[in-house]
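We treat protein structure as text, and this decision shapes the records that our systems exchange. Below, we set out a record of this kind in full and without editing:

***
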Amino acid sequence: MVSGIYMLLNLVTEIYYIGQALDFDTRWKIHINELNNNKHCNKLLYRAWNKHGQENFKFYVLEIVIDENKLDEREQYWMDRSKCYERGIGYNI
């Protein structure tokens, strides 16, 4: 099990989502399941997934975080650095 910060990138628009995971493989599978079954809580990401399709999204590991207590801090760092909460840049709300 590897924890850390990841990016879910739309290859068509280059808009992305930043998140944290206790286990990257499990988190990616949860995203796929929720998005394919219309149950994802992020409507922007959900709409883009439906429009562009799963094949146009890529999951990237940005940082491995050994201390799980640091996940929130590191996720905030990447969100601030990337501005993924700004419309047209990212899907984070």
User: Anything to note?
Assistant: The first helix runs from residue 24 to 36.
